Amino acid sequence: MARKKIREYDSKRLLKQHLNKLAGIQIDIRSAQITESTDFNGLVESEPWLATEKLVVKPDMLFGKRGKSGLVGLNLNLAQVASFIKDRLGEEVEIGGCRGPVTAFIVEPFVPHSHEFYLSVVSNRLGCSISFSDCGGIEIEDNWDKVKSVFIPSEGSFTPDICASLIATLPLEVKGKIEEFIKAVFILFLDLDFTFLEMNPFTLVDGNPYPLDMRGELDDTAAFKNFKKWGDIEFPLPFGRVMSATETFIHDLDEKTSASLKFTVLNPRGRIWTMVAGGGASVIYADTVGDLGYAAELGNYAEYSGAPKEDEVLQYARVIIDCATANPDGRKRALLIGGGIANFTDVAATFNGIIRALREKEAQLKAARIHIYVRRGGPNYQTGLTKMRQLGEEISIPLEVYGPETTMTGICKQAIQCITAAA
Amino acid sequence: MATGQIFSRTTQALFYNYKQLPIQRMLDFDFLCGRETPSVAGIINPGSEGFQKLFFGQEEIAIPVHSSIEAASSAHPTADVFINFASFRSAAASSMAALKQPTIRVVAIIAEGVPESDTKQLIAYARANNKVVLGPATVGGIQAGAFKIGDTAGTLDNIINCKLYRPGSVGFVSKSGGMSNELYNTIARVTNGIYEGIAIGGDVFPGSTLSDHVLRFNNIPQVKLIVVLGELGGRDEYSLVEALKEGKIHKPVVAWVSGTCARLFKSEVQFGHAGAKSGGELESAQAKNQALKEAGAVVPTSYEAFETAIKETFDKLVVVSVFDRIKSRDNRDKRVQLLQQYAHNNFPSVKYMEYAVQVENYTLSKANNLVLNVDGAIGSLFLDLLSGSGMFTKPEIDEIVDIGYLNGLFVLARSIGLIGHTFDQKRLKQPLYRHPWEDVLYTK
């Protein structure tokens, strides 16, 4: 299970489509997505309301507090929307300490309203929490004491009694519609494998609930049973995470294989680079370099696991070596080829791909004065480590090899000593 | 959850979705531990029936294959562990079917990528019916010398290296399966080894949590020290913090939460494990380490210092629990005192004993624990008997001493122990003779 945030545009698309299917509730949500590749004229043709209605436009980039950050255009016509977007598309903004360009917008009809309600559903270990308030909107955090929450255990159901406690204070004329709406949203939440859903606010249009703002998170491991229901869904990167060409290459490689291949550059000029087997171990190597005081020298985070094929390891290792050896500056660098003691992964087999890449990149490695530190254990590790040692001698690159007799992160210390030693 | 041990030396499992290697590794482990019965009672391979031939030591055995979970459960009513090697698509359904069998108590789910909503249904059912779910996305777990799940702890040489063929005193639980094997090795290096080790899996909502297993270890008398390896993301570690604060855990806990590097990333980041996602401050490794430390766990400053922290905590335990039984000036051997008292009251002369006591006074000035032991007391008193009884001449006494009669007394005492030891080894089915490994083991 991995929780992935989806765009507001997709949250609303799923809500509109499935609320009708699951509960017969029709919401007249109209929204359009605009990115760099959007053909404006084509869009207006398929969504004619864009040309006739007063509009709202805001970034659709997985971050909140857009109103407070002055990033919402209200009550605009199409031309004004176009210029609003033109001014901001691709421009960097800073939200909560995270900088990144705005690359997607959502445009909707402007809905004048007086009431703002709050609704959220959160998946917990033992069930789901549903929260509701009739004081929603941008001040929700100040009005958090007015939010009522109920818990629905996994084995239980969302009974009218439980729901009644959420909406007890609502006036009679809206109670029925809102109760029906909350119940339907919860059914949709479960049916579509949402893990988080929030409408802040939703309002009433002609007496019917209508979400003005919406956030959603889906469990992407449920894709195999939901791909039809989800339709053309996008799981954008977290805001501020811009992938370099090399990162994109590994990301694409990762998408195509059943194994796991992760690569994030932290500091292109860092002098300690890692290529670590295993989800748990890879984090610990990065931790250790940081905990020993050399976070600033850490070039990357990298993890490979799930028995990638030799060719995949080869492509993966090439990229890491390229990054680690870029722009030699005469100073020593270290590459950590690390890992714990594998349970079942054949160490010699995965090392084959790495060894091929190292051999190919011999000149580069030497130019960047790379020292290689290897530590690994598990099935067939002796063969793997021997091959590594032989490679070191063959291409005469400083290469030290350790097995399970040493601590896993001992080579982090050695790498630090290597790069801090004189000359 | 809570309560204690979930496996034993007689635990048998049903193995869902035939995989030759992990089953063979389980059987090799069984043989290495001297189990009488193989730990896999039956295999379920939907749609097929018959037998699978595997090795139990040198002997080829046939393990029955069943086409359904129900058929396997009724054919093997004593098998109470279900090891599920189904794919992520079908793992949830087959796990639920297994949990519903009255004979099944523990279900281990290996697959990675089981939808969260499905796991939540398994958690709810297991809670209501007092069953244990390990995983999803786990390699499993091991009770040293007793039972292991699938690929846990890898190859035989690793199992021998980490001394997992016999129980130690450490209960270990981690999220990561890969790191669990690493820690079995680390723990074997600095303690007497693992008693039980569990990997709960890297998902956001694992079937059982770190604190579930810590509380269980707390109830297992053989577990003396608890080691926990947590991870950033989620709030699971806080239930451990609560349990520590409430005084529910009476054994020392050494813990480390990995993921301190998350602060190096500019945006939100998803690490290798689904549950390892940087989020709020509370879910950070730093905050969790701090909270665990404040609640009384031993928390090192980095993973690199984890091994030393485990070693130091274990060494302290050993000092407290073993060496204080060794006698010292303030804690004399009661037998020596009684013998000395008896001799004073009844022997005609105690000059040799008094000489021994003078020697003891001298040695005690060197070290607090160099006290006269029971052998020394018996030896000196025998000399007093020989010389004080008036029945032996001096040359006769010298001859008796030279021949080593007194040593005979000590050999006699130890031979009782040796005989007892031999019988005990046989009772525990641990014969003293060990044939070279390569002759008897089928390994791959």
Automatic annotation (TrEMBL), chain A:
Q: Which reaction does it catalyse?
A: oxaloacetate + acetyl-CoA + ADP + phosphate = citrate + ATP + CoA
Keywords for this protein: Acyltransferase, ATP-binding, Cytoplasm, Lipid biosynthesis, Lipid metabolism, Nucleotide-binding, Transferase
One cellular component (GO) term of this entry:
cytosol
Q: Where in the cell is it found?
A: Cytoplasm, Cytosol
Chief place of localization: cytoplasm
Which is one GO molecular function term here? succinate-CoA ligase (ADP-forming) activity
Per the UniProt entry, the Enzyme Commission number(s) are 2.3.3.8
Please list the residue ranges annotated as the ATP-citrate synthase ATP-grasp domain. Answer: 2-230
The alphabetized list of GO BP terms reads:
acetyl-CoA biosynthetic process; lipid metabolic process; succinyl-CoA metabolic process; tricarboxylic acid cycle
**Alphabetized PANTHER family for the sequence:** SUCCINATE--COA LIGASE [GDP-FORMING] SUBUNIT BETA, MITOCHONDRIAL, SUCCINYL-COA SYNTHETASE BETA CHAIN
In terms of Gene3D superfamilies, this protein maps to: 3.30.470.110, Succinyl-CoA synthetase domains
Main function: ATP citrate-lyase is the primary enzyme responsible for the synthesis of cytosolic acetyl-CoA, used for the elongation of fatty acids and biosynthesis of isoprenoids, flavonoids and malonated derivatives. May supply substrate to the cytosolic acetyl-CoA carboxylase, which generates the malonyl-CoA used for the synthesis of a multitude of compounds, including very long chain fatty acids and flavonoids. In contrast to all known animal ACL enzymes having a homomeric structure, plant ACLs are composed of alpha and beta chains.
* Natural source organism: Platanthera zijinensis
Query: Which InterPro entries does this chain map to?
Result: Citrate-bd (IPR032263), Citrate_synth_N (IPR056749), Succinyl-CoA_synth-like (IPR016102)
Subunit arrangement? Heterooctamer of 4 alpha and 4 beta chains.
Q: What is this protein called?
A: ATP citrate synthase
Q: Which residues does the UniProt record annotate as the domain ATP-citrate synthase citrate-binding?
A: 241-417
UniProtKB/TrEMBL annotation, chain B:
**EC number, as in UniProt:** 2.3.3.8
Q: Name a Pfam family for this protein.
A: Ligase_CoA
Q: GO cellular component terms?
A: cytosol
GO BP terms in the entry: acetyl-CoA biosynthetic process; fatty acid biosynthetic process
**Keywords assigned by UniProt, alphabetized:** ATP-binding, Cytoplasm, Lipid biosynthesis, Lipid metabolism, Magnesium, Metal-binding, Nucleotide-binding, Transferase
SUPFAM superfamilies attached here? Citrate synthase, NAD(P)-binding Rossmann-fold domains, Succinyl-CoA synthetase domains
Q: Which GO MF terms does the UniProt record name?
A: ATP binding; ATP citrate synthase activity; metal ion binding
Q: What is this protein called?
A: ATP citrate synthase
Q: Which organism is it from?
A: Platanthera zijinensis
Its gene?
ACLB-1
